[in-house]
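Renewal narrative, Specific Aim 1. Our central claim is that a sequence can be written position by position from structural information alone. The example that follows is taken directly from our test logs and has not been curated for this report. It begins with the structure tokens describing the chain, in the order in which they were read.
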């Protein structure tokens, strides 16, 4: 599908812009914000709904406090985000107002998306803002997020929101022309990849060494996010946001950036959330006999197939399911806590009530709450699920 046709057919899309695009040596580049707002406003014409994921708060705060280039502690970065977020939103409000659009600030934390009720509340709010014709400007709440509880980076946040909103397209604007087939520092002949049918191990290896944005997310982060988006049935374009008219040129059909195609078999929105967004608390290891029923038969995971329980998790929490040789078979919501799972592992369903002293679920993880991956994509899945 051509880029122009893809964008024209979108009902909803997400645009993510990184710090490397929005900021310069002296802080926030207001001119760049104004160009971006104009293009996003044009994308939102004809009833199309657009959500903007924007970095730049920390860099804006650094500039306010005269700390550009200084090494900052975590509390200082959080304080800089608090100082900068107001200025960033003021710039967006003024820029969108010039095009007849209203901007709405939405700050999210990992817990807002990893816990199902808060996830659904966030979706309801964003749905309403989009239905009002506003442009939600979303960022992770850096004033309270630390490494242990962060979503990772805004590429990952944008991928999560693409699934949450049921958007058809994610556009990631960065400071490179797209994804290259090699590290250009080591291979001057490295070339842009125009289209990616499917993210495979070779592409992940090529992306891991490529220079990317000056923020948290490099090129590997963008490829991982594009793979997550592909699994919910949507497209991703990674393009150079330093072009003043990049979004207009994409709408016109120019062959810019790298286009990632969706997977033929998509995950439902809920299963995508289970696999890539829900808070994970541990792992269960299954025996050889459980592998085929899970991966080929679409069966639930029974306690009889569990041979080891790792980590601590509550009932209802997401856990990784590992097979022999540590292969990642899937992710699912456990019917049991880690302590209970340890008690019932290896037991047949009719023995569970005796072990626990009560009637309970016959399955360790029900198939409706289990996402199973192909055995041929172990390396790609391991990269996707890496924190």
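The sequence written for that structure reads:
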């Amino acid at each position: 599908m051509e880029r122009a046709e893809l964008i024209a057919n979108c009902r909803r899309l997400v645009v993510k812009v990184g710090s490397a695009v929005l900021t310069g040596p002296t802080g926030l580049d207001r001119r760049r914000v104004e160009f971006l707002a104009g293009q996003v406003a044009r994308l939102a014409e004809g009833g199309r709904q657009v959500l903007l994921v924007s970095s730049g708060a920390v860099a804006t705060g650094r500039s306010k406090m005269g700390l550009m280039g200084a090494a900052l502690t975590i509390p200082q970065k959080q304080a800089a985000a608090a100082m900068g977020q107001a200025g960033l939103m003021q710039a967006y409000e003024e820029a969108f107002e010039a095009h007849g659009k209203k901007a709405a600030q939405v700050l999210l934390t990992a817990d807002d998306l990893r816990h199902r009720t808060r996830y659904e509340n966030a979706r309801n709010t964003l749905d309403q803002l989009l239905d009002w014709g506003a442009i939600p400007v979303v960022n992770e709440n850096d004033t309270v997020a630390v490494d242990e509880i962060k979503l990772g980076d805004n590429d990952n946040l944008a991928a999560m929101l693409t699934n949450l909103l049921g958007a058809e397209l994610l556009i990631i604007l960065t400071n490179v022309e797209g994804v290259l087939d090699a590290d250009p520092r080591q291979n001057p002949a490295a070339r842009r990849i125009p289209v990616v049918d499917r993210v495979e191990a070779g592409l992940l290896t090529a992306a891991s060494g490529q220079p990317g944005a000056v923020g948290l997310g490099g090129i590997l982060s963008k490829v991982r996010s594009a793979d997550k988006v592909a699994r919910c049935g949507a497209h991703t374009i990674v393009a150079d946001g330093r072009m003043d008219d990049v979004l207009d040129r994409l709408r016109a059909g120019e062959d810019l950036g790298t286009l990632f195609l969706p997977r033929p078999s998509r995950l439902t929105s809920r299963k995508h959330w289970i696999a890539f967004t829900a808070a994970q608390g541990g792992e269960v290891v299954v025996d050889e006999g459980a592998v085929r029923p899970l991966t080929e038969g679409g069966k639930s995971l029974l306690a009889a197939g569990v041979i080891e329980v790792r980590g601590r998790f509550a009932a209802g929490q997401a856990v990784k399911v590992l097979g022999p040789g540590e292969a990642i078979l899937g992710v699912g919501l456990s019917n049991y806590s880690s302590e209970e799972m340890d008690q019932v592992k290896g037991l047949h369903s009719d023995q569970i009530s005796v072990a626990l002293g009560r009637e309970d679920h016959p399955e360790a993880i029900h198939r409706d709450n289990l996402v199973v991956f192909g055995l041929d994509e172990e390396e790609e899945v391991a990269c996707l699920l890496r924190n």
